[in-house]
């Protein structure tokens, strides 16, 4: 019997490796649109965050999203993501 491997992802806020299912995926689409991917199935480049506002704030401060997506991210996008994160929490 082989044990099923659990996919791990690194949080761009705190840097911890956690189970993919526990995390929130932030997506950059081919049109350079950034949004929260609740299903984790949409096409595009993904970055993962713990479902806590503290990790989100750390990611904003350390520019984790900018590094993950290799682009600058406007303040409005962060504000929209923060509103969506509060609904998760």
Mean pLDDT: 90
Low-confidence stretches: none
Gap between N and C termini, in Å? 38 Å
CATH topology: Hypothetical Cytosolic Protein, Chain: A
Largest sheet: 3 strands, antiparallel
User: Any idea what the shape is?
Assistant: globular
Number of domains: 1
Give me the strand/helix succession.
Answer: EEEEEHHH
Please state roughly what percent of the residues sit in beta strands, choosing from under 5%, 5-15%, 15-25%, 25-35%, 35-45% or over 45%: 15-25%
Task: Write up this protein.
The chain is an alpha+beta fold and 89 residues long. The chain has one domain: YlxR-like (Hypothetical Cytosolic Protein, Chain: A, 2-Layer Sandwich), CATH 3.30.1230. Helix content is 33%, strand content 22%. It is built from 3 helices and 5 strands; from the N terminus they run E-E-E-E-E-H-H-H. It has helices at 53-61, 64-69, 75-88, and strands spanning 8-10, 17-19, 24-28, 34-37, 45-49. The protein has a 3-stranded antiparallel sheet with strand order 4-3-5. The protein has a two-stranded antiparallel sheet with strand order 1-2. Strand 1 (8-10) and strand 2 (17-19) form a beta hairpin. The longest helix has 14 residues, at 75-88. The model has no long low-confidence stretch (mean pLDDT 90).
